[in-house]
Amino acid sequence: MHFIPQTPVYEDANSSSDASTIYSSHSSPVSSHQNGAISESGLGPPIWSNGEDAVKLSNATSKKAVASETSLAALPSPPLSDCELETEIADAVLEAPITVNPAKSNLETDKKLAKRLNLDADWMGTSQVYATQAAYTQASNWRKALLDDLTRSPYDPSIYVDLSSVDCKLGYTDICVANAYRALLLVQAGSDTAQITSLPSLANDVRTAIQFRLRTASSLIIAEELKEIRLQASQLLLDGLKGCSASWDGLQEAKKALKEFPGDPELLELKKELLEDFKTAHQELVAAGCKPKNVRELTRSGKIFQKRYPWVDESLFWRTPALVRDVNKEFGENAQVRSVVWGPEGISPTKRVKREGEDVGPLGIFATRDIKEDEVILVDRTLLGISDARSNQLDWCDGCNASLRMPYLNPKDVHHPDCCKSVAYCSQECHNNAIDGYHSLLCGKEFDWVYTSSLIGALGENGEYGSRWRPIMFKRLIAIVLSDMKSSSSAITHPLQHPLVARMAANYPHPDILTPESAHHWQFFENVVAPTQILLQLGIDVFSSQIFTQEVIQTIYWRVENNANMASTELTYSTPAGPVQGEKVNQVNVNPNYLFFNHSCMPNVTWHGGAVPDSNATEISWLRTGTAEGEVEKPGSSSVICIADRDIKKGEELKISYVGDPLGLGEEGGYWEGVSRAGKREWMLKWFDDGCGCEVCEKENEDARKKAVVAAAEENV
């Protein structure tokens, strides 16, 4: 018998990307819609800029993993940049470019089509490929019946196969892939070809479930059934990957499946289709002018639409008055969170008080007093901060990511836990928050594979981040959630109800949109395999659990990536041989209060993170918190500091710009050097009047513009 280790391993886990890595010298928000107040158009995909823009991975190096081939069968090969294309793929890629200009979804057209065909947009799926199929199969109670079966027999892989088939027909091919993957895990356990060590009785549970369904104790019949289920699950896995436009992942999985079923016509046909899809994607990227390095990485990613999963209880998407009250306990005297509504005067506080248990809708932050220009409004610290520096290197605080090195922290002030030597903390507060919470679940478990296979902090040429930070963020978040759920005093019964998760909102399309205008990048390893393995490693039985399903996992992903901000820090530090310059750490943070800021192209609040872009060029004022004691944040920390960009009146909504400087010319030494704030605002007003294409700005009325003009005039005086 071979064992699936708690740490997934792969045939070739070395990564030596030849893509250069470019990091921004300042913190930058990545979300196109952080709190629900922006419509479906948003400002583009939340992590990958402009949909098809090139994204390059960091030049990270991973250890080569060694394992027997049978122990690898349940796990996909990671999308590594040094993995050579199959000869047949390379030969098949044509030099002649093919351009495709897909028509964008039209709301009115979609409404007419939905009415004519009696379609429900909520059930139109995440797949770009299988929309037509989904339209004709959505009205069915089959899925509900299968879920009922699953509650009674959670270890029967055939139910996951049936569920995967229904999800594929409905167009939710990302969920199809996940259920097929879980079926394969069960098949391997039942066949004694691999074992999930956190579920030692799983092999017997699988065989018992099949024995009960087939009403036979024959080991030969059960073995034959497991083989047939494996074939079906493999076919559905490839079909789902095709629907997710993940042709590279599909070709890797097809290669593994065909080793076991070499003559299966359906597998062969799916491999052929995946190959054609890969060729087309490659040619489109070349035609769009992408550089070869970027084409290589982008062709290893699929795409799906961001959609709600209609079978998930609607109340799990609500933000209630009770949640808002709890959030406001965390705000100081400067501001508070309130509901907002779109009206004839743009965004404003809602007039009607929501009832208890009711969804309060979009939220924003409003000043509770007059605030002076350059005042620090909010210092938002978070435990949801990750970086591409591993905690076990002991250079960075496991709680807040602050530097633990001299001269930024005296070694005697570093706190080490009693339980292990794999983490360290910058303060007693960070130590206590971690040890009393998430660390107890992570302590003693090996998660290096998440970093090895997930190259976080990768930047493209234009400064946009790659997406493989998500499994690492999921590990931290889910450890916090599980720790709180297991607390004896906890009233949390579902991960989507946890305060850190519930306060976040995804950027879902308009309810009447059948097919959204843009899709989001998706990978088999990152979106399915990694979170499943993390949950298993943390002791969650993903097969019997009714709450840690793939749709819940992906909903958490949608929320996190829509509310994350990214930064890089570069600190000079001392060594016996002298100062060392240039260490750069890339961070992804979800700050729980900062995320409620709405966007404006005429923001009244500026912000930056505790990450110091350059310790030689950055003054200590960068880290000031505005306290009378002159407190400063620790360099490298995952905090966000929000500062008034002008005088703000009580009751005014506080807004930031999600896209930074609207003109993109605000770098030091750039266009704005030496230009007064009034002069800059004058240019911004002109740009604002010309129209930026941002729906938020289009909704802000003439009155708001007049106020801005008056403010600019007063400042000039």
UniProtKB/TrEMBL annotation:
It holds the Pfam family SET. Residues 1-45 are annotated as: Disordered. It comes from the Eukaryota. Residues 20-32 have a biased composition (Low complexity). GO terms for cellular component: nucleus. Residues 333-659 form the SET domain. This is SET domain-containing protein. It comes from Lachnellula hyalina.
